[in-house]
Every structure is written in C-alpha cells, then in structure tokens.
Recover the amino acids of this structure.
C-alpha cells in the first residue's frame, strides 16, 4: 500500500483529526492564488537612474515560497505537485523581471565593453535563477509520477521548461 493510501486510512480511522490533508491543502493552495498572481504581475521599478530593488522582490518570493512549502507539508500529493510548480513559476518570474533592469548609468559611462560585461553577468544570474525554477518543476514532476497525479499546473509549465532545457 502506498503512503497516500496509508494516510487516507489513518485519517478515516480518526475522524476527529481535522479535515483530510487534501481538503486542507487545497484550501491553503487556493488562498495563495491571489498573491501568486500579484507577484506574476509585478515589475521591478526604481526611480530614474537608480537600480531596482531586486532584494524586495526576492523577499516577497521567499515569503510566498514558504507558504507554498507549508502546503506541501500537509502531505496531499496533488497540492504538493501544484505548490512545487507555483514556486518554480515565482522563481522563473524573478528571472524575467531582471529583463527590465536597465544598465546603471555608472556602467554606461564606462563604455560599451563594460556594458556588455554587465549584461552578460545579468544573463548568467537569470540562468542560475531559471535553473532553480526548473529544479522545482523536476521535483513536481517526480512527485506527480510517483503518486500518479494529474496536474494542470505542471502541464502548463512543461513547454517553457522543455524549451529552456533544450536551448
């Protein structure tokens, strides 16, 4: 018997144990849909000539990631898969937000070679961040396979994931 069936049997034997993990996880996941969507709409902004506050965006991401990890801890495979996917989406979006980061004026003043160096470093940082997103998607895919979970969230990111890995 797999772990999910054992857990379901244990919960059925103890009706006063609270809502089943699937219902609790679904509710916790649903509560994150709005903050998730807000983060995906966010852009890095800054006053003219100033660098955008990447640290603030990263902090928001980490807070949401922590809340999604709480959903995972509830032990419902369907919502754990969806949560890992959402964390990957948040991380991926952070990398995309960096596309909008302008080259700082002090770097532009140094000339085109320094500007290229800056942009290359930024692209490397984006790729490192995207690699982190892909790791969460891999985790979600492994869990989905293990528990035979159908996940519309996972299917929605597969094309982006595949295109990135095959580049």
């Amino acid at each position: 018997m797999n772990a999910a069936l054992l857990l379901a049997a244990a919960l059925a034997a103890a009706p006063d144990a609270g809502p089943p993990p699937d219902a609790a996880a679904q509710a916790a996941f649903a509560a994150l849909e709005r903050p998730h969507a807000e983060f995906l709409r966010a852009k890095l902004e800054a006053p003219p000539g100033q660098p955008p506050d990447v640290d603030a965006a990263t902090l928001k991401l980490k807070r949401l990631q922590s809340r999604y990890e709480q959903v995972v801890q509830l032990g419902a495979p369907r919502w754990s898969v969806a949560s890992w996917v959402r964390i990957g989406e948040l991380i991926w979006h952070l990398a995309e937000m960096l596309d909008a980061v302008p080259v700082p004026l002090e770097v532009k003043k140094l000339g085109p070679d320094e500007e290229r160096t800056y942009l290359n470093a930024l692209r490397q940082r984006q790729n490192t961040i995207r690699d982190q997103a892909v790791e969460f998607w891999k985790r979600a895919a492994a869990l989905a396979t293990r528990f035979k979970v159908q996940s519309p969230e996972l299917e929605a990111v597969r094309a982006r994931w595949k295109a990135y890995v095959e580049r």
Residues 49 and 106 are 9 Å apart (CA to CA). The chain has a mean pLDDT of 88. The two ends are 41 Å apart (CA to CA). The chain has one domain: 21-165.
